Amino acid sequence: xxxxxxxxxxxMQGLINGLCQGLxxxxxxxxxxxxxxxxxxxxxxLGPPGVGKSLIARRLKFAFREGxxxxxxxxxxxxxxxxxxxxxxxxxxxxxxxxxxxERYLPGANIVxxxxxxxxxxxxxNALLTILNEKxxxxxxxxxxxxxxxxxxxxxxxxxxxxxxQPLWDRFLIRFEMGGVKxxxxxxxxxxxxxxxxxxxxxxAVKMGQAELESWSKKIDQIELPPEVLNTIQVVRxxxxxxxxxxxxxxxxxxxxxxxxxxxxxxxxxxxxxxxxLKADLMDCFLMVHCLWAHxxxxxxxxxxxxxxxxxxxxxIAVNLGMLRRELDEFDKDxxxxxxxxxxxxxxxxxxxxxxxFSFVQMEKQFQGELIRISEFxxxxxxxxxxxxxxxxxxxxxxxxxxxxxxxEHHLEISFNGTEFTLPLRTHKVERSEIIxxxxxxLISQHWDARGEKxxxxxxxxxxxLIEEEPEEIGTIQQHLFxxxxxxxxxxxxxxxxxxxxxxxxxxxEKILYAYQSL
Length: 519
Known about the structure:
By secondary structure, this protein is an alpha/beta fold. It has 18 helices and 15 strands. The strands form 5 sheets. It has a 5-stranded parallel beta sheet. Strands 11-12-13-14 form a 4-stranded antiparallel beta sheet, with no helix packed on it. It has a two-stranded antiparallel ribbon with strand order 4-5.
């Protein structure tokens, strides 16, 4: 696979190293914030005060050469003047125009951090929607194209259950829940570290410029989405809908609409580009987890859905296992229909009476009783007689007589007063199926041989491609910039599973071929 210049990945690695310096257990939200900025999206951080939400935004500013930030803590009393700038008195007085002085406020910034976003009023929310959607701020009579690279919002709570907040909530593509530092060593390092985490110590060479970002944006749109990635997205979408349909789900329904799916694809493409690739891979798909939840109680289910989809379906679509299974099903049915004739046979079987007895029929009433225990009958032989008990219909013992099995099927030979009687046991009719095998015509066999050869060739080619020429990304799968390396084992497990399925399908093909070639 052709590669992009390694400088893109190296630049990102340098940026990540610099931005994460001095952060403890905050690397993941920092990386996601950087990814969202390059993808042209926004990120929402959920967590209590004091866990580093504002630190993420302040450090992200250092990733840009023209880094200008705007930070504001919302309250229910916040006004548009405080966010978008005060009204220009001179413009209003001299030109009778209602315009704001935006340079030192949100419209004039590159990186925006809005804390306690859900405390903002409707006027602020409406203006933010236009900025998030179109990167445009309506200033009086003019539309200003803002140069905002990323908007980071935060709160210690989810948006209220109100329709007025849903449009804004939906615009935050990446959502991340933050908590306190959990690791003992990381905690001690954090509280004893005296370095200035708010200082700009990012090398100028790795910072991103406006022209560079514009060039990257065009290249991101050209990133290839291979079948395994598109299939994974489709299956995840279907499984979320199935989960919503269940009545016993342990989480709120998950509703993802078309615009968000389109933005997710853009993020996946951005991830592939920044990792130095010309096409997306299955590791990029793990990023969907951060885009699909609306409440933290949904996260475990979404993680399970995405991981299981990648493990079970990942590269399966690339080798078209579904098509191969269908081909073998049809081949097997054709062979069975042509070589196997099913015949129904009716036969007599002994009919138990009162569960533990067989009954026999006396043409003339030679003696009392007509029942024999099944267990005693099974011990009888044809050659040597044995003593058995004879019971009447009420299971009362009537006689102890010599008996043996008759050579005639389902008959009993009993000696009574020196006379030997051959008595039939009661039976009932039972139908059973019998398969008769028929050798196929020579021309049909030749056609099947060619068909089998074609399928075998396909299986061997796909197995060789997976094992000897495995997907190139497998070699670097655990070096992903934005996804935990441990998740690479899930992708590899799918690759191994696909190879094992191919082995089983090859064995099944051999059985199909043997079924008619051995006749």
